[in-house]
Amino acid sequence: MRILFDIGHPAQVHFFKYAIKELKNNGHEVFITAKPKEMALELLEHSGLDYFVLTKKRSGLGKAREIMATLKALNKYSKKIEPDLLIGGSGNFYVAQVSKMLNKQSIVFEDGEDEPGIKLYSKFADVVCTPDTFTRGLKVKRWKKYKSYKELAYLHPNRFEPDDAVKNELGDNYAILRFVGWKAVHDIGQKGFQKGEIKKLIDRLSPHCKVYMSSEIDDPELSQYQFPLSPEKMHDALAYANLFVGDSQAMSMEAAVLGTPSVRYNTFDRRVGYCNHIEDHYGLLNSFSSPEKAIDKAIELIKNKNAQEHWNQLRNIMLNDRIDVTEFIVNTIEEILNESV
């Protein structure tokens, strides 16, 4: 069968890459479309996946014109390759709408309760898949839930083993910090660490460990702390870090499922179901609505020599309870394909 994956965000490369390879091994023809957004194309290339670029980088176009250009390009490419099934990640209404134009089926793998794209695909997507931690009600044709977190599609031990060579490059005692730019549609009205708070966090952490930072906030004063390795090594670095601190939901969760003590601050607070779940059920994440309290917790954890061992024990409990999401993705796709034969 012919399957089309549309990549709308770099994180979706990680989410789908192992499923794509497994589907190919199972004899399916797999096609990938993507936009040149952030590191998406670079991650596809690093993963050894061929892809078709739907649209070029554009400047000065309004959001509506960009949406129409992407829809048109995806529709044209889909007519050319004639997929049996179209797949998209969080908020991807393009695959849902194009599939209806072609009289084909679509699956959207959603994880964000505040994702505005849900309203645009809910009437069109044939199947919507979410973690069982999803707190928002959905009015969709078919809703499948999986007992896991999306990060376990690519960070489950079945799929990922960290490269300990990063310890030679980063050292044995370090913290990873991550700060986002808060420019996405679902980030409107929200905020995370501000520049002064970031500097305070680094000043307090530096006496206890090395500090490496990944940030969308431009501040030349903090450039000395920028993560020194290539982006594809970030998960290896997270796995061996003594601490993660940030305002990113995604990297907070990645650190947590890897068993790294993780502290998260942003004003989303208790509105993110999967963050709430991994914190409440397994204690693998510490979330705060106050930057000062988050910083205090970070210092407490980096000074605790037993924190890593404790987090590894909590991680083992979590892994025994949660599934390998790639296996769910593959099984769901093949189930839908078999139903359409």
User: What is the CA-CA span between the terminal residues?
Assistant: 10 Å
What's the CATH topology label of the largest domain?
Answer: Rossmann fold
Strand content: 15-25%
Give, in order, the helices and strands.
EHEHEHEHEHEEHEHEHEHEHEHHH
Number of domains: 2
Strand elements, count: 12
Global shape: globular
CATH class of the largest domain: Alpha Beta
Q: Mean pLDDT, nearest integer?
A: 91
Give the fraction of residues assigned to helices. 40-55%
Task: Give the class from helix and strand content and strand pairing.
Answer: alpha/beta
Rounded Rg: 20 Å
CATH superfamily of the largest domain: Glycogen Phosphorylase B
Task: Describe the model.
The protein has helices spanning 10-25, 40-46, 63-81, 93-101, 118-121, 165-170, 195-205, 234-240, 249-257, 273-282, 291-303, 307-321, 325-340; strands at residues 2-7, 29-34, 52-53, 85-88, 105-109, 127-131, 143-146, 174-179, 210-215, 243-246, 262-265, 286-288. With 341 residues, it is an alpha/beta fold. α1 (10-25) crosses α13 (325-340). The N and C termini lie close together (10 Å).
